[in-house]
Amino acid sequence: MFKSKYSKYLLWIGITLIIAGIVSLVVSTSLVGNGTKQPLNILPIALIIAGIALIIWYGKLRGLGEVGFWQRPATISIINSLIATFAFLIVLALINFLTILHPVRIDLTENQLLTLSPASQALVRNLSQPVKVLIFDYKTNPEDKKLLQDYRRYSDKFSYEYVDPDRNITLREKFGVKAAGEVHIEAGDKRQLLTNLSLGKNLSEAEISNGIARILRDRQSVVYFLQGHGEAALENVEGGYSQAVKALQDRGYQVKPLNLATTPQIPESADVIIIAGAKRKFFPPEITALQNYLAQGGSLLLLIDPQTDPGFTPILQEWGIKLDNRLVIDPTEKLVNLDFGPAVPIINTYGTHPIVKDFGNSNSIYPGSRPIETLEAKGVKATSLVVTKPETWAESNLNSEAITFDAKEDISGPLDLAVALTRQSQDNSKKESRLVVFGSSTFASNGWFQQQLNGDIFLNSVDWLA
User: Checking DSSP bridges between strand 381-387 and strand 349-350, what pairing results, if any?
Assistant: First the structure.
């Protein structure tokens, strides 16, 4: 009676248990984000064993040992179904295994909100030594863990660990943890406090990336912003550079103002000199000081707005740079319904240089830009950084109400808005002098600094110069 009425269910219950066990086993043995494996779960094994047992029981009830059992049409049909089912499961398991070894995530959000910035990707991908982030807390924040997994995805030299400060007293004392919620970073024998996650605060990409850059720096680099000629203020004012200054400090730089009129020589501690938006001419001794600094292997970042002449011609001529006072116009801004205006070029084309090599076709914005032309100069290697679209042009008639391209007066695109240059120093030290020139200072000012990749290209420029 049981054989005829209920035995047919044993086969499908057995197959279902085996499928459930295999799927559960594949999921339970997956790698988690920090590179460790979860302990083996006994439930999947039990499901598979139970399923096999039911199938064997079914076989005995249906005459598994009888002559001709394997030639029956019903038996052949069942075997074919089992083979197809197990083949599908094997393929599914292989796909899952390959996904674990080579994780890939596609970000379909409009502005790539779920993806690390190109600067962070490059930073982690190029790690020279292992870096570890330790979160001393009693619970795991899913958003923080997801962000840390994103970093892990780009390099196996990056790892993270959640540490219960009450249970792991040794690590707590090693890092000098004073309260739960502290996040520390470690590289080699160097350890630093990254942030504190108390009061519901989440980890941010900026904190992690700046912490990585800071702990890997051999010493604290010094960046000087020149002042005294109408340059952008370093304070939190409109058009100021306070956001850029804070980002540099968060990355481990020491930032100082410098007035060459009162300090005629550039300090030996200067790793980078930045001149952002100077409106008045430099004194000749100041220009000479900058020329000598570059000749000795210095690094200079110039951000020069249109319709200004700070008197940099002697420096620029030595490096083969020619500035144009015309204003770059981008008519495509209207096509994408943005309200920036035609004098705000939107860029998604970059050169092949370390500063921009990971930007792909992501956007950056350069309000009020002048084009930059590079000429042949002995010993100088120039590389374009920021390139406008072919539809853009450099407008010469800024007083006209109707802005249209004039082939006789204007320059058609594509145009360079920023270039990076190198040459050997002239003091026999075999050092490399470096110069980066932007045709706009506004792009890195307060408010604009946080637009798209603006902050990234500014910080990358300073990193390369330093």
Answer: antiparallel
- Which of 46-60, 216-230, 368-382 tops mean pLDDT? 368-382
Q: Are residues 90 and 161 in the same domain?
A: no
The per-residue b/e assignment along 226-263, b for 16 or more CB within 10 angstroms, e otherwise, is: bbbbebbbbeeeeebbbbbbebbebbbbebeebebeee
Closest CA to 369 of 322, 433, 404, 323: 323
Per-residue pLDDT, averaged over 192-205, amounts to 84
According to DSSP, residue 333 is labeled G
**Residues 81, 123 within the same domain:** no
Residue range 336-350: average pLDDT? 83
Domain encompassing residue 153: 118-216
pTM (predicted TM-score): 0.68
The DSSP letter of residue 37 is B
pLDDT average, residue stretch 85-101: 63
Q: What is the CATH number of the domain that holds 125?
A: 3.40.30.10
106 in a domain, yes or no?
no
Pair 253, 193 in one domain: no
